[in-house]
């Protein structure tokens, strides 16, 4: 698990804390980019990749799918539902992942975790 031995990363922040920071809602992607650019710890890099993949799915839903649904008058209520549920759902997911990771547990999302394994070798 990340940071079990209290190891500190390149920035002087404990690896376990940095692993949790990459999941902080709406700003964690910045910590994930920093972790990928500077850190050598494989576990921290894995969390950074999974976090960025999660943000990508969120952005795809809110910035691509919902506007396409809004383009047709009939599907405006569906677009509002997609936007609202994805916002609340991802907020809850990110908070849960940050808390679990800070406690030293590795949270693997079903598809994104496998992609993160392939990216971080």
TrEMBL record:
Keywords: Membrane, Transmembrane, Transmembrane helix. It comes from the Bacteria. The keyword Transmembrane applies. The chain crosses the membrane at residues 20-38, 50-69, 75-96. This is DUF4870 domain-containing protein. It comes from Candidatus Amesbacteria bacterium RIFCSPLOWO2_01_FULL_48_25.
């Amino acid at each position: 698990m990340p940071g079990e031995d209290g190891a500190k990363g390149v920035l002087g922040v404990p690896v376990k804390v940095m692993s949790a920071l990459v999941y902080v809602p709406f700003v964690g992607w910045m910590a994930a980019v920093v972790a990928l650019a500077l850190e050598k710890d494989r576990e921290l890099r894995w969390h950074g990749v999974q976090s960025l993949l999660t943000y990508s799915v969120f952005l795809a839903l809110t910035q691509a799918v919902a506007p396409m649904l809004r383009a047709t008058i009939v599907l405006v209520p569906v677009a509002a539902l997609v936007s609202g549920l994805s916002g609340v759902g991802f907020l809850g997911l990110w908070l849960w992942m940050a808390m679990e990771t800070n406690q030293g547990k590795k949270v693997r999302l079903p598809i994104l975790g496998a992609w993160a394994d392939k990216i971080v070798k």
